[in-house]
Amino acid sequence: MSETITARRAAATVVAAVALVMAGTAATPAEAATARTSGTAGLKGIDHDAWIRDVRAVVDRAEPYVAERAAHADGRKQAVVLDIDNTSLETDFHWATVPTPAVAPVLELARFAHERGAAVFFVTARPGVLTPATEWNLRKVGYPVDGLYVRHLPDLFQDVSTYKTAKRAEIEAKGYTIVANIGNNTTDLVGGHAERTFKLPDYDGKLS
Ligand SMILES: [Mg+2]
To answer: Which residues span the domain enclosing 175?
Structure first.
């Protein structure tokens, strides 16, 4: 096969894949425009594009660390832990978009880590009743999902940071080293059980 045909086929495959992704997951241009001003975040005056820039600045610090650790795994299982709402998914920018779109820089980081052998775990304060919808949403927008931890009774009566810390300890007990824990609230991040924490913006609690 000539290089030109190979290149054309590769290009066609990429175009088809992009079309498939856009048909299945991406916001339409109209939705993308309203995302800047809609949802509870819009009501609170948070600009979508400025938020994404702030998120990317943090992800740009996390990525080299994940790469460095993956290069020196020494046979140990590694993991990254992600919060879901306003960390992995643009929850507060969308009233009713299904599936909720991914936070693009965090999706890129999750894939980057996964390609380098790290497991991707989600730890969320969402109640267990939402497990199927949440896992479907994460996979639909392109996240690798090696584990999803939601709150069941009696976890629902614990404070969020205690619950989330316990889940990270569970992940470690399965033999993983959590190299990075990423969330937008301090309750996602306090309590240890991660080599590094990366705090995304919550604008003084405005983003849940
Ligand atoms: Mg959150």
So the answer is: 3-199
pTM value surpassing 0.85? no
Contact (Cβ atoms closer than 8 angstroms) between residue 77 and residue 175: yes
* pLDDT tens per residue, range 162-200: 999 999 999 999 999 999 999 999 999 999 999 999 999
* 113 Cα–ligand 1 center, Å: 20
DSSP at 203: T
Q: How far is the CA of 8 from the centre of ligand 1 (A)?
A: 42
Q: What angle do CA 204, 64, 104 make, to 5 degrees?
A: 55
Q: Which of 145, 34, 171 is nearest to 90 (CA)?
A: 34
Q: Report how far ligand 1's centroid is from the alpha carbon of 6 (Å).
A: 44
Q: What is the CATH number for 84?
A: 3.40.50.1000
User: Any residues with CB less than 8 A from the CB of 119 and at least 6 apart, and which?
Assistant: 77, 78, 79, 80, 146, 147, 176
